[in-house]
Q: What sequence folds into this?
């Protein structure tokens, strides 16, 4: 399952709140990737019946899901989720080095 979100918050505190929201729902982070200071991806596993509560927690933290208001999967079966967060800010993107392919 893929979710997209946007926020005007700073990246580090927003990512902390995302991790807290995932943990509070009984989930855990599997992977993450930072794409400059404008975007991040967090891959996690979460019980399916905790997705609605996760959406609410993110909203309370100022992180809005885009185009995903449900219906959420029913039942406690574990869901693999990829959350892509776009950070809206007025500053320039932070360049991150990309290793050369060999």
A:
């Amino acid at each position: 399952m893929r979710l997209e979100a946007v926020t005007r918050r700073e990246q580090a505190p927003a990512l902390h709140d995302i991790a807290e929201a995932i943990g509070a729902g009984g989930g855990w982070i599997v992977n993450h990737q930072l794409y400059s200071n404008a975007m991040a991806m967090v891959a996690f596993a979460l019980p399916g019946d905790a997705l609605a509560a996760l959406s609410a927690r993110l909203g309370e933290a100022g992180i809005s899901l885009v185009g995903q208001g449900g219906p959420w999967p029913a039942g406690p079966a574990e869901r693999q989720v990829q959350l892509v967060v776009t950070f809206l800010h007025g500053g320039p993107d932070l360049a991150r080095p990309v290793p050369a392919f060999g």
